[in-house]
Amino acid sequence: LKMKEREKVLAELPRIDCGACGAPSCRAFAEDVVLGDADKELCVFFWRKELEDRIEQLAGLVMAQRQAVGGQL
């Protein structure tokens, strides 16, 4: 079960082994996350992807609001 969890986390990571998170590799970092020794947000690439997704969601909400009020925002 832990191996499947690790592979799932690893699939979300860039696999470039930059070490910015403090782990020597993305695989090691994924294992740390599964074991509870690290949080995915320590990976700057994961954090960036999350931020981009949230910005995209916010942009969608703004566009929907503009359409609802007749484009006056």
Q: What features would you highlight for this structure?
A:
73 residues, mainly alpha, 3 helices, elongated
Please specify the SSE layout and strand pairing.
Elements: H1 2-12, H2 26-35, H3 44-68
Give a brief description.
The chain has 73 residues and is mainly α.
What can you see in these coordinates?
The protein is elongated. The relative contact order is 0.13. By secondary structure, it is an all-alpha fold. It contains three helices and no strands.
Q: Give the terminus-to-terminus CA distance.
A: 49 Å
Q: What is the 3D form? A: elongated
Radius of gyration: 17 Å
Order of helices and strands: HHH
**Average residue pLDDT:** 91
